[in-house]
Design brief:
By secondary structure, this protein is an alpha+beta fold. The protein contains five helices and seven strands; from the N terminus they run E-E-E-H-H-E-H-H-E-H-E-E. The strands form three sheets. It has a three-stranded antiparallel sheet with strand order 1-2-3, covered by helices on one side. Strands 4-5 form a two-stranded parallel ribbon. Strands 6-7 form a two-stranded antiparallel ribbon. The longest helix is centred in the N-terminal third of the chain and has 16 residues, at 46-61. It is globular. It binds a DNA duplex through helix 3, helix 4 and strand 5.
DNA sequence: CAGGATCTACTTG
DNA sequence: CAAGTAGATCCTG
């Protein structure tokens, strides 16, 4: 694993790469969690991936769709989790799905709760937009890094959601 | 086998 | 309508 800091207006994120690509993106003031031997790899040729990661992050934090992503290393996830993560990449900025809807999308109706688990296991937040997955009736649901971040990201891209029973007009 | 970033139906006031 | 509960579900470690 190879780590590098990315300075943004929201603080310093940490990107963690393996030889296959970006494996983890950590919010400011949060330490990377993936230090598994299974992910140890040779030093990747960092610069292009680092630049792609940084500019994708900048765009995403402004609520825009990144033009270009670095390759992702999702090998730490189960097959089910990877399915969920890939499905999340299809959700456009500003729009949202519910855990239940996402379960439908990946052909596992009824697995809404398991989808929630997969969201929590997402190591590349912001770029893999787990914040666009809400509970039923557009309620906010949860977020591992703290609901403040989920709200901030949703507002940056002007997505509608419901907070404590009140619709939030973005 | 217990426990989640869920969901729906149902019950009460 | 609001609030609370009981089950149903299904992936994970």
């Amino acid at each position: 694993m190879w780590h590098t800091g990315i300075q943004t207006t929201d603080g310093i994120f940490t990107a963690s790469f393996t030889a296959k690509g970006l494996a983890e993106l950590s919010f400011p003031d949060r330490a990377p969690t993936l230090d598994r031997q299974s992910l140890e790899g040779r030093a990747p040729r960092g610069l292009p991936w680092q630049d792609d990661t940084a500019s994708a992050l900048y765009a995403a934090l402004r609520g825009e769709r990144p033009k270009r992503f670095p390759p992702f290393d999702l090998s730490h996830g189960t097959a089910f989790q990877q399915k969920v993560w890939r499905a999340m990449l299809e959700i456009s900025p500003g729009s949202t799905r519910s855990y239940g809807e996402l379960a439908m999308t990946i052909g596992a109706p009824g697995a809404s709760r398991a989808v929630g688990g997969a969201c929590g296991a997402n190591r590349i937040p912001v770029l893999i937009p787990c914040h666009r997955v809400l509970a039923a009736r557009k309620r906010l649901g949860g977020f591992s890094a703290g609901l403040e971040w989920k709200r901030l990201l949703l507002e940056r891209e002007q997505a509608a959601y419901v907070l404590e029973g009140n619709p939030v007009a973005a």
